[in-house]
Amino acid sequence: MKPELYRMAKRPAFLPVKRREDFAPIEKTEAPEIVAVDRFTECHVTPADVAARMVEYLDVSPSQCGQVLEPSAGTGNLSRALSTAGFGPSQIVQVERHIRLSQGLHDFGSVANRCFLEYAAEMRGRAEFDRIIMNPPFSDVRKHVAAARDLLAPGGVLVALVPVTFREGQETLETLPPDTFANAKVYTKIIRICRE
């Protein structure tokens, strides 16, 4: 190796720097709170665009609707889509068993912090909902959809995001791409069930 490669320059190099005073002030913003969801909650967060389409599939305006139920509300993306569409907090009933997740739902409507299957068993015959919108846990999807169907009012509509293997007398509205959920490779669809 050539020793001259390792010699320091005899004079330090200077770069002229001009001071600028014409910068626009930077606005202070707050970072949103990160909601960590562990895999044991089986919470697959509904993407915002899918949630918005699901609300459209309810096929009702907020002024013509009574209460809307969101079982297993998770991070609240379906409730957020309902709120964006004009449904008020007095119309939205959410059920979420995970304590931390349920704490973030109060802006959208009332919250029952409990297992939806227990809630449905207790409310059967005591409460009916005009509309139900849900993304149930896929491991117990049949139980959750059946429990929700039992809470539908006559003429009510249930819209759910379920695995494509779910086939129990419903109308399939759309099949979703396999990359709909970032952390799960599962084939899903949106269905609608209407009560006569």
What does this structure look like?
It is a single chain. The protein has 196 residues and is α/β, with parallel strands linked by helices. It has 5 helices and 7 strands. The protein has helices at 48-57, 77-84, 99-103, 116-123, 141-149; strands spanning 68-70, 92-95, 110-112, 129-134, 152-163, 171-175, 188-194. Strands 3-2-1-4-5-7-6 form a 7-stranded mixed β-sheet, with helices on both faces. Helix 1 crosses helix 2 (77-84). The longest helix has 10 residues, at 48-57. It is elongated, with a radius of gyration of 25 Å. It starts with 47 loop residues before the first helix and ends with a strand. The mean pLDDT is 86.
- Overall, the morphology is elongated
| Helix run count | 5
Unreliable runs, pLDDT <50, ≥5 residues?
Answer: none
Strand order, main sheet: write it out.
Answer: 3-2-1-4-5-7-6
H/E order of the elements?
HEHEHEHEHEEE
The end-to-end distance, rounded to whole angstroms, is 88 Å
Q: What do the pLDDT scores average to?
A: 86
Radius of gyration: 25 Å
How much helical structure, as a percent, in the residues? 10-25%
SS-based class: alpha/beta
DSSP strand content? 15-25%
Strand tally, please?
7
Report the sheet with the most strands, covering strand number, pairing sense and barrel closure. 7 strands, mixed
